[in-house]
Structure formats: C-alpha cells, structure tokens
Amino acid sequence: MQVGIPAFVGLLGILPLIIMTIVDGFGQHLPPSLYLWLTGAAAVITAASATLARISAIPGVIVWTRQWAPWLAPDTK
Predict the structure, then answer these.
(1) I need a surface site. Which of 25, 53, 66, 72 has the fewest CB within 10 A?
(2) What is the value of pTM for the model shown?
(3) Is 75 inside a domain boundary?
C-alpha cells in the first residue's frame, strides 16, 4: 500500500481533468455509469501497480531481474 494509496490519491487529483476532457468530447450528456466506470478503472490500475511494486520487491524477483532483465533491476550488483 506504500505505492497504491499515493498513486490513487494522485489519480483522483487528475481524474476530474480527464472526465472534463471526455465530457467536452461527448457533450454534456455523459451517462452517470461512466463516472463510476472511470473511478473503478482508476482503482484497478492502482491495485495492479501496487501489486507489481510488491512483487518486484521480493528478493527472488530482484535476483531474477538482475540476471535476466537488468534494465528492470533496482540496482546493478
């Protein structure tokens, strides 16, 4: 949750700008379910990024990335 909560809060900060851009594109007749869908999408993206951050912090994963994907490794030991 160290990554998830700040990412979600940050996304909520820009979500109104994204919604306003969509509203400008579609007009003022945007269905209320779309607002719910966009918030749900933000939550899913946040959960996925938090999960990936947790998985990438596992020592075995760090060793694997150092060996097979060094551009993804947190350091170059």
Answers:
(1) 25
(2) 0.56
(3) no
